[in-house]
Amino acid sequence: MPATDIATERITLADVAARAGVSLMTVSRVVNDRPGVGSETRERVREAIDALGYRPNIVARGLKAASSRSIGLMVPDVTNPYFPELVRGAEDVAIEHGYTLLLTNVIEDANRETLALRTFEDHMVDGVIACSPRLDNEDLYPLLKRHRAVVLVNRRTDPKIAGSVRIDHELGARLLVRHLHQLGCRTFGFLTGPPHSHAGRERMLGVDRETRELGIEFSHARTVPCAPTVEGGVEAAGELFEREPGIDALMCFNDLVAAGAMQALKERGRRVPEDVAVVGYDDIVFARMFTPALTTIKAPTYELGQQAAGMLLDRMQGRGHGIDIVLQPELMVRDSTVGFQPTSGGKTATGRAPRRSATAAGGRRRSR
Amino acid sequence: MPATDIATERITLADVAARAGVSLMTVSRVVNDRPGVGSETRERVREAIDALGYRPNIVARGLKAASSRSIGLMVPDVTNPYFPELVRGAEDVAIEHGYTLLLTNVIEDANRETLALRTFEDHMVDGVIACSPRLDNEDLYPLLKRHRAVVLVNRRTDPKIAGSVRIDHELGARLLVRHLHQLGCRTFGFLTGPPHSHAGRERMLGVDRETRELGIEFSHARTVPCAPTVEGGVEAAGELFEREPGIDALMCFNDLVAAGAMQALKERGRRVPEDVAVVGYDDIVFARMFTPALTTIKAPTYELGQQAAGMLLDRMQGRGHGIDIVLQPELMVRDSTVGFQPTSGGKTATGRAPRRSATAAGGRRRSR
DNA sequence: TTGAAAGCGCTAACAG
DNA sequence: CTGTTAGCGCTTTCAA
After folding, report:
1. CB contact under 8 A, B84 and A78
2. Which positions in chain B touch A123 (Cβ < 8 Å)?
3. pTM metric for this prediction
4. How far apart (Å, rounded) are the C-alpha atoms in residues A180 and A197?
5. Which of A268, A271, A330, B19 holds its CA 20 to 30 A away from the CA of A233?
């Protein structure tokens, strides 16, 4: 028993009803703005509510209505600046509609993902936004099916199971490859991120296709998976350059990995961008403050969060099924690539690329 | 009505009881690991639970037990890398003890803080961790008193109302002043952050006292409040240097502000650290990647989160009252200060400071 | 337009 | 050791 004064007793519907001299139901109707109450009674009840400072107990309501006015948001790692941006977007929409966000960090771990989805269930959330889940479909689907509404971020899926909101990562990867190729880079390396990342696979697809189309030889031997963190970048880049010193263009899973990679390259005496052009992905706020400033792909992350929450609210009401929102990424050219000096090898070494220009405009597209 | 298959009906205690051929209470006892059930019956119930995949409904339990097995965590802005670190610490402890985190972002806004605290109440959280709240005591206390247990981060308070876990920000500020003074800086400027920030006030205290003790003249005219963001830093630094061009040491509310300030200084042609030494606060992961790498104060943020959650769990059980945890900060010396070139003015210009060394060791202290 | 009764899923407090 | 009863605060259903 706390030494503190006990918090003021909870005011219940009954208290308000007693004070207003009406029944529970009348109060309930007023609270929920439902018809069937005379305007005079309604007024009297309103006064009682104000006087007592009544607030509905969401838990009790949830028990009956099987709803808790909350939505679960699962993100891999709030510590990566990419996700907080998304959280803000989702939260702003959720709060606006009277919902509370239950946020869970799953630290890129499948077990934590399972736990989180279960916990959401226990708390009777009305819907779930799952951000880049790492679980396999077989494990993920049964978990998702237990929820009334689900939206997946950056992962395509059966629209029966969940809606999806994503960035066109294949395009993002293509933009980067194209840019590096224009600069005269010919030997591409790629730190691909966590092996189970959907986004990572899509980017790999983009790299594969775009290099093929441009006639660049691209070998998966110059590919290393890594943790999506600065440390992951340091390690993976070290390993890759040990094995494949000839790489002159290094693509990274995200900006954190790129930061680590640039650190590792510096330690090895490789200059960025003169010897090796490095690109990241996400355009976190700090990318432009790195040394050199990082060329990367800017994804409309805040909007991604908003769209996800909006779609979830729709699905919670049984609307918006089968809609798949795809947001377009944008290339941000900065100093980690523009000073690249092509060596003899380059067939069509251009060297002069436009600085600080973006190619693909933002925007969105709806499919299906 | 969703087109999806309806999620599997919820399995309740009654289902398990029926299957095991016992009463509700027996199942409840087994679920909660309570004594008073024969080992054979217990086994039978366990099997039924597994077979049916029963999970307790926390909402229903909460209604009776007035608890929802969740704790509310209110942070000003997840977008500032400082807070996610803290969130991780708190979350890890909470999850370990079977609690879920309800996270809310209050975007440095008093209204959102009020809303968040109320929402926590509506959801019957078992306790609240409030991170650097901006609300005044008169507004904050009544809100807090409605919660069973509260821990404030970075804000001292009446232990009857809430526990407190904080960094010794006065010491942090003193370490910075001392360091800058040793380098030969003599004219200090300070971007103080949001006016209502408790942490900001403590740091100001540290600056005031340390400068006085060192015999440096420090005027509040060289002080500007600012938003705790990169943009805030750009603006405030611009304004300050317009007015006070003689400043040779710029202290900033946090690392984001410092990033903005360095940007603004660069635009004005002032070199960092040669002309102006700049320091931040928090040591976010990216501070070492800035150009130049930022000298700053490293706060044990993850641990701060852990301690806050730990203390809250204690308080929720009526223990640990009156304990106030204070964590010690540490000086991280980097390139944004070490190359400072003192001009004639400095009386005891030293110039040679140890690189990459820290003065105050980490550690913690309990008072009261 | 209003109210009374029943019950959401669970647990505390007693019986047996 | 096990079961019964009552009720958490609210809403749905049906009756007045």
Report:
1. yes
2. 58-59, 68, 70, 100
3. 0.84
4. 24
5. A330
